[in-house]
Design goal:
Structural class: alpha/beta
Number of strands: 9
Order of helices and strands: HEEEHEHEHEHHHEEHEH
Largest sheet: 4 strands, mixed
Strand order of the largest sheet: 1-4-2-3
Helix content: 40-55%
């Protein structure tokens, strides 16, 4: 357990959350950690917390096994990441899975500077997923509108080119390229306005002011990018892992770049259509 709270507060909270035996759940307990300094400053002193809550000077397991040292007491205050590595008996940050609920204090520093495996707890995730599943029909409508918008963009582009080439050919009895272009512009404006309103309505389903946590429009939000870059795992609560075996391997999903979706690209569809016309 690694927390910025001091021992007296930690004791009250953990007694309430788990019960008087909460200390038996952890091999090592570090309070008053001063994160994120704990993860960056190797000059911070470490103290052993006695049963009465007072502090005693210590330098960690300088000699002998860490297990023997911890028999004298496993609750500490302050210190830095090197103390923790020594207490755990690990030499590489990749041997540690650190679970936290704060992107800056917990996840970003431990991942970027120490190479720890990280898991970010995002309580809002359950609500985000529930709304997303409830609004599947609304999302499908947005996808349809985006597809129509892309087709209209291609149509307008074709007409703009045709209008430039056919500027001198005008007929009174038939719809000219210029007239058709005006019609396309009007339809394009209408679809864009509809898409803008539907996107806003969809986001408001998640939160009336902030919208969807992981999206801005239909691109990933800044927070979502940080989750992707610095959290090896993320979940709404730690207890979700009680359903999984400790031997389970977690593997990353395949990254997708725009060119990997070449068949879905509206420009590709336009070029293919233009090729058929020619």
């Amino acid at each position: 357990l690694l927390t910025n709270s001091l021992y007296d507060f930690t004791k009250v909270v953990m007694n309430f959350v788990y019960g008087p035996e909460w200390k038996d759940v952890f091999d090592i307990i570090i309070v008053g950690a001063c994160k994120p300094a704990f993860l960056t400053d190797t000059n911070l002193p470490i103290y052993r917390v006695k049963e009465d809550g007072s502090l005693a000077n210590t330098e960690g397991p300088m000699f002998g096994e860490a297990s023997s040292y911890l028999e004298e007491g496993k609750i500490f205050q302050g210190g830095h990441w090197k103390h923790l590595h020594n207490l755990l008996g690990v030499s590489s940050g990749s041997r540690i899975l650190y679970v936290g609920d704060h992107m800056y204090s917990d996840i970003l520093r431990s991942k970027r500077q120490l190479g720890w495996r990280t898991m970010l707890v995002i309580p809002e995730l359950e609500h985000q997923i529930n709304v997303m599943l409830e609004q599947t029909g609304h999302f499908d409508k947005l996808e349809e509108l985006r597809s129509i918008r892309d087709e209209l963009d291609g149509w307008v582009y074709s007409l703009e080119q045709a209008a430039a080439e056919m500027e001198r050919r005008r007929g009174d009895d038939t719809l000219t390229e210029e007239d058709e272009l005006e019609e396309a512009w009007a339809e394009q404006k209408r679809i864009r306005a509809m898409l803008r309103e539907e996107t806003r309505a969809y986001h408001m389903k998640f939160h009336p002011q902030w919208g969807q946590l992981f999206k801005t429009g239909y691109q990933n939000s800044r927070f979502a990018l940080q989750v992707e870059n610095y959290a090896c795992l993320y979940s709404s609560r730690v207890s979700n892992f009680r359903h999984l075996s400790v031997e389970m391997n977690f593997r990353c999903m395949s990254d997708v770049m725009p060119h990997d979706r070449i068949a879905e690209n509206p420009v590709t569809r336009f070029l293919l259509r233009r090729g058929k016309d020619n």
